[in-house]
């Protein structure tokens, strides 16, 4: 069953681009933006990551830390971070444990073909690890996603 507003997020979130375990408790006392995206280095996902990069200091001033999540592996994340100079970690959810827990793994359609993939979704988490807001794929404008969040907080 997918996590919803008011639920606590799991403590173990996964491994980052360096193979280090990331836990929600590592961010205790901070608010979190956890954004799920389909694939490293694709146009929409790059635009979204760069929006977070370009607004990183404003989000930090508002008390938010940022975590990106996709099912790409650590090596792919490392390349993506280096190429786009991302100042935040990316979780390699290769076993799909996190995308399934958050309910963002589902059927998608591209050019008439159906397949399973990550549904672009962002979760705003408070200092206690509780989901406060969920921003769905229809609401997200990848090039200005961080600005969308800043306007809401």
Walk me through this protein's architecture.
The chain is of the alpha+beta class. The protein is 27% helix and 30% strand. Strand 8 and strand 9 form a beta hairpin. The protein is globular.
The major beta sheet can be summarized as:
7 strands, mixed
Number of helices: 5
Helix content: 25-40%
- SSE sequence, one letter per element: EEEHHEHEHEEEEH
Rounded average pLDDT: 96
Distance between the termini: 27 Å
User: Which structural class fits the helix and strand makeup?
Assistant: alpha+beta
Tell me, briefly, the overall form: globular
With strands numbered from the N-terminus, the spatial order across the biggest sheet is 2-1-5-4-3-8-9
The low-confidence parts are none
Evaluate the radius of gyration.
14 Å
Q: Would you report the number of β strands?
A: 9
- Please indicate the percent range of residues in DSSP E strands (runs of 2 or more): 25-35%
Quick tags:
two-stranded antiparallel ribbon; 153 residues; single chain; 9 strands; seven-stranded mixed sheet; alpha+beta
Question: What is the gist of this entry?
Answer:
It is built from five helices and nine strands, in the order βββααβαβαββββα. It is an alpha+beta fold and 153 residues long. The longest helix has 12 residues.
What's the topology here?
Layout: E1 12-16, E2 21-23, E3 31-36, H1 43-54, H2 56-61, E4 64-70, H3 74-84, E5 90-92, H4 97-101, E6 105-110, E7 113-118, E8 121-125, E9 131-135, H5 145-152
Parallel strand pairs: 3-4, 4-5
Antiparallel strand pairs: 1-2, 1-5, 3-8, 6-7, 8-9
